[in-house]
Amino acid sequence: MSKDELSIKEIYRKYRGMWVAVIVTKRDANGQPLYGNVVASDVDRYRLRQQTTSYREICIFFAGEPDYPLLV
Amino acid sequence: MKIKTNFGLFPSVFVILRGRNQFEREFLALLSSSSDYCVIPRVDAYMLGYGEAVGDTITDMITRPPYITTLIGHSSFVDAPLITINEVSVGSLTVRNVDFIAYDIPQEARVDVILGKSFLERAKARIDYINRVVELEE
């Protein structure tokens, strides 16, 4: 495990409320990410995309839950 | 081949999309059986090799290209490009040639990608809301 590697739970805690781009380093038996290296983070998902254009493979998600109900 | 995974507040799974140019983008995707199509942000469709997803040239606006489709949204009609993503994978389960709408969901929803019926039916999705478990099967 590299020193920058974090579990997905740790990423949720450390980057709460931000969009994150992660290089996944370990997965569970169902292919769901367990650990990864965060290469970019931003409160704005469009600015995050500007930092990830050079990556062939990248995992992007929001570290947190929505502020509002999703659908009405 | 069966995938079984837990979810939190909303039914969701990490999904890998492979495009025309062999780039890969992975997202925590919302599973929504009320959506006919899957949804991907326009910029990510572009990064996967689907240039038509960001076709805002004057020619596109005047001629309305054939890949543009009209959808009923929650409060209005929406025109958006309909594209076919080469591969959609959850773990070892892969579904090929899945229809997606290239459309930017407001980022306040905190969701980039929706897996709608164009994927869920083919992946034989079962969602257990009580135990918060998603099952997919090839």
Detailed description of the structure:
Chain A is an alpha+beta fold and 72 residues long. Chain A has one domain (6-62). Chain A is 18% helix and 38% strand. Chain A is built from 2 helices and 4 strands, in the order E-H-E-E-H-E. Chain A has a 4-stranded antiparallel beta sheet with strand order 1-3-2-4. In chain A, strand 2 (19-27) and strand 3 form a beta hairpin. Chain A is globular. By secondary structure, chain B is mostly beta strands. Chain B has a single domain (2-137), classed as Acid Proteases (Cathepsin D, subunit A, domain 1). Chain B has helices at 42-47, 58-63, 117-120, and strands spanning 2-6, 12-18, 24-31, 38-40, 68-72, 77-90, 93-102, 114-115, 126-128, 133-137. In chain B, strands 2, 3, 4, 5, 6, 7 and 8 form a 7-stranded mixed beta sheet that branches. In chain B, strand 5 and strand 6 form a beta hairpin. Chain B is globular, with a radius of gyration of 15 Å. The model of chain B has no long low-confidence stretch (mean pLDDT 88). The chains are: A alpha+beta (72), B mainly beta (138). The interface between A and B is medium-sized, with 29 and 35 residues.
Proportion of strand residues of chain A? 35-45%
Roughly how much helix do the residues of chain B carry, as a percent range?
10-25%
The succession of helices and strands of chain B, N to C, reads EEEEHHEEEEHEE
What's the overall average pLDDT of chain A, rounded? 91
Number of domains of chain B: 1
Bulk shape of chain B: globular
What strand line-up does the widest sheet of chain A have? 1-3-2-4
List low-confidence stretches of chain B.
none
- Which two chains touch over the largest interface? A-B, 29 and 35 residues
Distance between the termini of chain A: 43 Å
Number of helices, counting only DSSP H or I runs of 4 residues or more of chain A:
2
Radius of gyration of chain B: 15 Å
CATH architecture of chain B: Beta Barrel
The SSE order of chain A reads EHEEHE
CATH superfamily of chain B: Acid Proteases
Number of helical regions of chain B: 3
